[in-house]
Design a protein that fits this description.
With 306 residues, the protein is α/β, with parallel strands linked by helices. It folds into two domains: 235 residues, Rossmann fold (3-Layer(aba) Sandwich), CATH 3.40.50; 53 residues, no CATH class. It contains eight helices and 13 strands. The strands form three sheets. A nine-stranded mixed β-sheet has the order 4-1-3-2-5-6-7-8-9, sandwiched between helices. It has a two-stranded parallel ribbon with strand order 10-13. A two-stranded antiparallel sheet has the order 11-12. 30% of the residues are buried. Bound molecules: 2-acetamido-2-deoxy-beta-D-glucopyranose (NAG) (5 copies). One 2-acetamido-2-deoxy-beta-D-glucopyranose (NAG) binds next to loops. Keywords: Signal.
């Protein structure tokens, strides 16, 4: 039954949420999450909020605060995934394509591997569970990490997240962190001229195909890019989800599968490497020519196989 509950999607009753009492301690991350949603998520398309995996602690208030504010914005239908909270909810299975996703992670930084494994589980339930029809890897994904982690952990976390997304075909993804000067571990001993609470946000992402070293990352090799955000205007002024320059693949390989069908795809030329090994090279045919034109205009190196 626990599993069943876990897989359930719920529409939330926004009316109910108004009665929640949230204390205002640490909601900046949620304010930025909301702002990014408002600026960059398509109006009218469902927003899926994936609640933190595992048991809850102090993060509850912030989560409620976010949902309440997104509800108030009335821009999208909102679905809550992994509804462990006691909410007034109507369970249903919907079939509309999801427009965007907000995924919340929380917990101690040093246990990041555990959170990533929860994240992986949620992602695969979204994709293969009873909501598979709505799963939309072309959507925009925002992961908000509700822990103040040192830089060492944030890159590990975002690399693991972006890598996981990549394996699901997701490329429009941002990981959002709140950073107070040196993370929680080290309270600022230094006596700086800045105020003790030098807080900012960090967006971590990566741009596949940005250059020939960033084609298809092997496990753990996602080159993470970090952007420091100090105010709302940065979010407003930048197309933060861009960066996936599929107009220029910088020589990255694109695999194309073809079937021999003359005169569109003529049989390949066979090149023998030695007595027992060969490779086939598709070079002739109208469609092969077309592929070459496309490949050239995308600056991609084509790998044509059957
Ligand atoms: C709601 O917030 C008010 C003011 O912050 C506080 O006095 C009250 O005890 C809170 N109620 C609950 C149920 O937490
Ligand atoms: C910070 O520096 C000022 C002036 O140098 C000094 O008076 C103050 O005690 C220092 N504070 C801490 C916490 O070291
Ligand atoms: C907002 O932050 C950006 C950099 O993140 C900075 O260039 C800009 O001047 C800031 N704007 C304001 C109004 O502080
Ligand atoms: C195509 O990709 C190669 C390899 O990265 C690069 O050197 C070249 O500048 C690119 N061509 C264009 C037109 O961008
Ligand atoms: C033939 O070439 C393949 C690939 O280069 C190599 O692995 C294999 O050992 C070679 N076999 C012989 C008999 O040379």
């Amino acid at each position: 039954m626990v599993v069943l509950k876990f897989m359930v999607f719920a529409t939330i009753s926004c009316r109910f949420l108004w009665s929640l009492n949230t204390s205002r301690d640490d909601f900046e991350l949620m304010d930025y999450t909301k702002l990014i949603s408002e600026e960059h998520f398509a109006v009218g398309h469902p927003v899926v909020i994936v609640l933190p995996h595992g048991e809850q602690g102090s993060g509850n208030n912030a989560v409620f605060y976010l949902i309440k504010n997104l509800c108030a914005a009335v821009r999208w239908p909102i679905f809550v995934f992994n509804a462990r909270y006691e909410m007034e909810a109507n369970v249903f299975i919907e079939t509309h394509k999801h427009g965007s996703y907000i995924i919340l992670l929380s917990g101690p930084c040093q246990d990041w591997e555990e959170h990533i494994s929860g994240f992986r589980q949620q992602l695969s339930i979204l994709r293969f569970g009873n909501t598979w029809e709505s799963w939309n890897p072309r959507a925009k994904f925002l992961v908000s990490v509700m822990s103040d982690c040192p830089h060492f952990y944030t890159t590990l976390i975002s690399r693991a997240i972006l890598n996981e997304f990549w394996s699901h075909g997701v490329v429009k993804a941002l990981v959002l962190f709140k950073k107070s000067s040196e993370g929680r571990g080290k309270k600022s001993d230094q006596n700086t001229s800045h105020s003790t609470q030098d807080t900012h946000m960090e967006i971590q992402t990566w741009f596949p195909y940005k250059n020939s070293q960033r084609c298809d990352p092997a496990e753990g090799t996602v080159p993470v890019k970090v952007f420091t955000i100090r105010n709302f205007s940065y979010i407003r002024g930048n197309d933060i989800f861009k960066g996936h320059f599929i107009k220029n693949l910088h020589g990255c390989p694109i695999r194309v599968h073809v079937r021999i069908y003359q005169p569109f795809v003529n049989p390949p030329k066979r090149f023998w490497l030695n007595d027992s090994y060969y490779y086939d090279s598709y070079e002739d045919g109208l469609e092969i020519e077309l592929l070459r034109i496309i490949g050239k205009s995308l600056n991609a190196s084509l790998v044509i196989v059957d």
